[in-house]
Amino acid sequence: MKIIITENRLNSVVLKWLDNKFGNLTKVVKGDYTQYVDQDGYVLISYLTNVKQIIVIDYKRIWKLLLDIFGMKSEQIQDILKIWLEETYNLKGVTPLPIAR
């Protein structure tokens, strides 16, 4: 039996997963950058403070997990991260891009 998950249901599951795993990052401003770090101080989200349109997302610890766990394509990941960043961190009108560290 094949289970079919609608795009809306997948988005809902992914948003909940992101909140559970990365919804409690700490905002840190360092020089020209605003960063969101985990409890170990590892930067997972970063952007130039004065140019908030482009948000870089850690590839290995967030982007790749969405590829591997949920089988999402890069466009889907970008779209869901836009929603999540706005809802969770009040970052509106941004374009999330992966960055390998």
Give your account of this protein's structure.
This protein has three helices and five strands, in the order αββββααβ. The chain is an alpha+beta fold and 101 residues long. Helix 1 packs across helix 3 (74-89). The radius of gyration is 14 Å and the shape is globular.
In short:
The chain is an alpha+beta fold and 101 residues long.
Major sheet size, sense and barrel closure: 5 strands, mixed
Helices and strands, in order, run as: HEEEEHHE
In spatial order, strands of the major sheet run 1-2-3-4-5
Q: Proportion of β residues?
A: 25-35%
**Helix share bin:** 40-55%
* Average predicted local confidence, pLDDT: 91
Number of strands: 5
